[in-house]
Amino acid sequence: MATPDNASWPGHPARTLVRLRDEPPEWRFGDLRLRRYHAADHGIVLALHREGLAQVGLRPGDGVYYDHDFFRMDDIYLRNDGEFLVGELDGGIVAMGGLRRADLVPGGHARAYGGYAPGAPALDAAEMVRLRVLPALQRRGYGAALVQALEERAVEHGYRILRADTTELQEPALALYRKFGWTETRRETIGGIVNIYIEKPLR
């Protein structure tokens, strides 16, 4: 289960994530405001995504990189029992993260080539994806705040399990998930890059 709204986590005991509004959802974490993505955010969010992957050496054509979901935000995140949050600091977007039905986007090798399928009638698994924090503002707990907020949303939607994947190149992301009780399930090599699959039960 997600931690309570007023809980803190190791390394950031002085700051807590506070839920300000249920719908559309909004939280505060210190000076950071988390809110739902709007269409006007598209360019900034896409640039933040690309900067985050470039930081660890991931780029188009490597078999892991993909960004086609950013061009179907409503279908994949906002209209199908998902969520996409952005983190604002001093009026600018500095962080983001998404939650989507695990059956909407293909996994493994097929993921980099696009594809989208309507979800099944029953909610079961959700994917937590696109966790990004502006490099200059990392290690401030903003990623942890996003994980907690998205876990809350997954519980509210009624999902049974959360899944995610990252690469060996993204060790800080993997460490963050582990702090929240996620466990590794398997590894797969795609284009010479080791992809790590993790999950967390919600009930």
Automatic annotation (TrEMBL):
Residue ranges of every copy of the N-acetyltransferase domain listed in the record: 32-203
InterPro entries in UniProt: Acyl_CoA_acyltransferase, GNAT_dom, NAT_camello-type
Keyword Transferase among record annotations: yes
Pfam family, one: Acetyltransf_1
Keyword Transferase in annotation: yes
CDD domains: NAT_SF
Keyword entries, A-Z: Transferase
One MF annotation (Gene Ontology) recorded for this entry: N-acetyltransferase activity
Protein's UniProt name: GNAT family N-acetyltransferase
Source species of the chain: Actinomadura decatromicini
